[in-house]
Write a structure and sequence with these properties.
c-terminal domain of poly(a) binding protein; about 0% strand
């Protein structure tokens, strides 16, 4: 008996087209275009999951730098003095303090300046 693959291929195509919903034109309707676009989307997603970490770190650093410069220090000096004082705060937390709680951040900078 000859084995037919129609059920498996239909399922596979249906899964691809389901993932391609919401795209414009052929990308959401035709299997080949959908596969091409999906592969590209997955590769961008993979790349950007890694880039996201770098982008956020640079954003945090620029926010901390802006907050610290108002107090007359540079980012490098501030981080160095934090480490010497053995204050263990992540850059994420420092950036949140700088943008959302400026008075608390100013207090932290004053503590660090005493060194």
């Amino acid at each position: 008996m000859k084995v037919k693959h129609s059920v498996a291929s239909r399922r596979r195509k249906k899964k691809v087209l389901k993932n391609a919903r919401g795209w414009w034109g052929e990308r959401s309707r035709k299997y080949r275009r959908a596969v091409e676009t999906l592969r590209r989307a997955w590769s961008y997603a993979y790349r950007d999951r890694r880039q996201k970490k770098r982008v956020f770190r640079s954003l945090w650093i620029s926010r901390i730098n802006a907050g610290v410069r108002e107090e007359g220090l540079t980012y490098h000096e501030f981080i160095n003095k934090l480490k010497k004082k053995n204050i263990l705060l992540s850059r994420d937390m420092l950036a949140k303090l700088a943008s959302e709680e400026p008075s608390a951040f100013k207090g932290l900078v004053e503590v660090v300046k005493e060194l």
